[in-house]
Design goal:
By secondary structure, the chain is of the alpha+beta class. The chain is built from nine helices and 29 strands. Helix 3 crosses helix 5 and helix 6 packs across helix 9. It is globular.
């Protein structure tokens, strides 16, 4: 089932989210020897998140390596001259290829990241008992969402990761979109919000606006208005962050607001600020964020697990909301020629408030009692049925004559992006379908 496994590949930690059907909620996954428990706030009340350190250690033999918590435990209290590789995500985003000796091979950062993430998927799928037909969801970093070339490169790399792990199907969810849902922010159309990602050595900010991306892949649910990534000074210092680091963080926030102001947007119109990440500077940085964005809702309770859980929930098809990204219609026959009636248009926000279309369905031949509702994706001369293998079948109690109105249908879009149909018999008014899903829209 799509959404049972979602990966948020991070600079410091990689979080595995999955959809628990029994409780109808997303959780982070414990994978023995790979992930570790992390309490995200002090005290016994703090929620525990399971995450895998984004580390890989190659052995002497070909194709032998340790990942995540295995690396930490292997090197605990030991002296080992082998290099531990980290911060691999940056090489994937930038496309940089610098080769290093990794065990018995020479590999670049993208190759190491592929080995790491494929092993994560393989181990996690064993825990969940997934078959090779499962869909693996990934969060896509804001920088890739902002540039078409980076998006395509990141997608191709993820396809190679999935193939190496023994799977073939993947789904992409923008990190800012997943983080908002995982953090509990109700995303609405055309709203702008900020995502601040705090890592040990890196801070990233992204200002995004919900809605269909104007260019590029139709999978996008938002567009990135501004993106900043900066390394922190003295980031290796494990002590309390000093004033220069806090000042640098304040500078990053001011730079973010200046960029958005140049585009004509007022900072006071933000719907919210999402805080994610795993860096040790969270407590003092969170205080700065609350000071900087006073009066704006700040979602900073979930941090490390927000994006992975948000991606798992969204791709599982739970009640959420979003935009329909294509035009959809039903087909009917007029004088031996097929025509289409639009029932859901591109840009429609879901869940819909009331019906998006009302239809009267007529009999095609004398005595008809069974009616199949086929949904077509329209546009660019490539209209095709999206539920041909499983159409919605509606039965009436009485047969109708050819051309006679038989069914009145009211169509809406639910929180999972499904076209839902409520149908009544025209003559008796009897309800014969009550909010029944007809097809999943995209």
């Amino acid at each position: 089932m799509a959404g049972r496994l979602a990966i948020d590949f991070g600079h410091l930690y990689t979080v595995i989210g999955y959809w628990r059907q029994a409780s109808r909620q997303a959780e982070t996954l414990y994978v023995p020897e790979v992930t570790r428990p992390i309490r995200m706030s002090p005290g016994n009340s703090g929620k525990t998140i399971y995450a895998a350190p984004s580390l890989i250690l190659y052995g002497r033999e070909s194709d032998s390596y340790l990942i995540g918590q295995q690396v930490v435990e292997k090197l605990s209290g030991l002296v080992d001259d082998r290099k531990v590789f980290s911060n691999l995500k940056l090489d994937v985003i930038t496309g940089k290829r610098v080769y290093s000796e990794a065990g018995s091979r020479w590999l670049c950062g993208q190759d190491m990241a592929r080995d790491y993430l494929a092993a994560i998927i393989s181990r996690a799928s064993q825990v969940l008992g997934l078959g090779s037909e499962a869909v693996i969801a990934f969060t896509v970093p804001a920088e890739a969402c902002a540039a078409e070339a980076v998006w395509q490169r990141y997608r191709r790399w993820l396809e190679s990761v999935v193939k190496q792990a023994g799977f073939t199907r993947l789904e992409l969810v923008e990190h800012p979109w997943a983080a908002a849902w995982g953090a509990g922010m109700p995303v609405k159309p055309e709203e702008r919000y900020i995502v601040i990602d705090l890592e040990t050595a890196i801070v990233e900010t992204a200002v995004v606006q919900t809605g269909k991306e104007s260019v590029g892949d139709s999978e996008r649910r938002l567009r990135v208005l501004s993106h900043i990534r900066e390394w922190l000074i003295d980031a290796e210092n494990e002590q309390e962050p000093n004033d220069p680091i806090v000042s640098q963080f304040e500078h990053i926030l001011r730079q973010t607001l200046r960029q958005i102001a140049r585009l004509g947007y007022d900072g006071d119109t933000f719907a919210g600020v999402i805080v994610t990440g795993s860096g040790g500077q969270q407590l003092p940085f969170k205080a700065v964020i609350h000071k900087f964005f006073a009066g704006i809702p700040i979602y900073d309770k979930h941090l490390l697990g927000a994006a992975a859980c948000g991606a798992a929930a969204l791709t599982a098809g739970i009640d959420a909301c979003g935009y329909i990204r294509h035009n959809y219609g039903v087909r009917y026959l007029v004088q031996d020629e097929y025509q289409y009636r639009l029932v859901a248009s591109n840009g429609t926000f879901y869940p819909s408030v009331g019906p998006v279309a009302e239809l009267t369905i007529k009999a095609s031949y004398d005595g008809q009692q069974e009616y199949a509702l086929f949904i077509y994706r329209l546009g660019d001369g490539a209209d095709h049925c999206i539920n041909a293998e499983n159409p919605l079948i509606v039965m009436t109690g009485e047969p109708a004559r050819c051309g006679q109105p038989a069914i009145h249908a009211s169509i809406s879009i639910d929180g999972a992006g499904q076209l839902a149909v409520t149908a009544c018999e025209v003559g008796s008014g009897r309800v014969i379908a009550d909010n029944v899903p007809a097809a999943k829209l995209m």
